[in-house]
Amino acid sequence: MRVLVAFLAIAVATQAEGRARDLGIPFEGTPGPLNAITDVPGVEVGQKTLIEGEGPLIVGKGPVRSGVTIVFPRGHGNLKPVYGGYFNLNGNGEMTGLAYMQDFGTISGPIGITSSNAIGHVYAGIQEWAVQHGGEAVYPVVAETWDGWQSDINGFHVRPATAKAALDAAKSGPVEEGVVGGGTGMHCFSFKGGIGTSSRAITAGAKSYSVGVLVQCNTGDRKVLRIAGVPVDRNLQNSWLPCYDPRQSRPDQTPKCGTGGRALPDSGSIIIVVATDAPLMPVQLNRVAKRAALGLARLGSYSGTSSGDLIVAFSTVPESVNGPDQKAPSPLTPIADTEVNAVFEATVQATEEAIVNALVAARTSTGADGYTMYALPHGELQAILKRFGRLEERKP
Prior knowledge:
This protein is α+β, with helices and mostly antiparallel strands. 22% of the residues lie in helices and 23% in strands. The protein has a single domain (16-386), classed as L-amino peptidase D-ALA esterase/amidase. It is built from seven helices and 18 strands. A six-stranded mixed β-sheet has the order 5-4-16-15-12-11, with helices on both faces. Strands 2-3-6-7 form a four-stranded mixed β-sheet. A two-stranded antiparallel ribbon has the order 1-8. The radius of gyration is 20 Å and the shape is globular. The N and C termini lie far apart (44 Å).
C-alpha cells in the first residue's frame, strides 16, 4: 500500500497553522504559553500516524487511517509514577490501569491513546519500550476510541512497533492536533475529529500552577453541538451531512444525502487526559477527572450509550509518590480542598477548548471504501458566531 504523502500534507495541522482562538472563538480563562498539555512542566507528547492506501476495504491490507498518541507525565526520560485519578463517564470503551489506580492511586509510565482493536498492541509496545529504557515493565494506562469508519480496524495495523515509534517521538513544546496519532481516523460531532489540546494558567493557595488537557475526540451528536454557547448545527446552511443507517457498517454517502442526511449518533468515544503541576492527592484527582466531563458537556454532549467517555487525571508533583515498593512516605502537602476549585474550573475550560481545537485542526479526509469525513467549515462557523455576537476580533 502506498503512503498518501499529499494527504498527510493537508491532514495534519500543527498549532502554528491555526487553532480555535485564531478563528475568533471566545474561551474563558488564561491559557499557558503553548495553550497545550505540554505547558505543564515535564509533560511530553509523542505521536505516530498511519495513513496508507485508498479505495475498497480489504481486511488485513487496508486502507489504514490510525495511529498512536502518547503522553509522558514526567517526560520520556523519567518513568517514575505520578499520582492519578480517573472518571468513567460512560463505560462503552476500555482504559487499562484503572485497577492499579484504584488501589494505589498512581499511574506508572506513559499514557497511550489509540484505536479500539490496538489497545493490546500499544500496551505491549509500552512495556517493551519501558524495559528497554528503564529496565523494567510498568503498568501503563492505555485507552481507545473506534476508528473503523475510515480504517481497516480488523486488520490490526497498529502494532507494538507503532507504539514505540510514538514513544520515541515524545517531546515538549507544541502538540500536533487534528488528523494525527491516535486521532487519525476519528470523527467529532459528525465532523472530522482527532487530537486536540489546551491549557490554563491558574493561581491556587497564592501559588501559580498549570492545568493541561489533551483529548482524542471521536464522539458527539451534531444536532446538539454548541461552540461558545451557540447552537451550531441548527444554524449550519451548507455543511454536508451523511445519511446514517445504523444497520450499515458505514453511512451511505450517495449524492441524495447532501445537507439533508442524518448525523452520526453520539457514539465512538472520547478520551480526556488532564495534567497539572498542582500538588494533588489521588482522591482529589478523581474529582478533577469528573470535572472534565463538564467541559465535554459544554459542547452539548449527552454521553450517548455507545460512546466510551473515559477520563484520566494526574499531578506531576511530588517527584516521587507512594507506591507498593516505597519504603518511606512521600513529602507532599496537597493544596487545600477550598483551593481545588481553581483546578476544577481550569479543567472544564481547557477540556472545552481542547475539543474545539480538535475540530478546528482536523481536515476533510477520505478512508476505507471512500468514506469521507468532512471538516468543520471555518467560515460558516465564524458567520454563525458573529450572528450571535460571539465572534471575537482577531488580534494582528
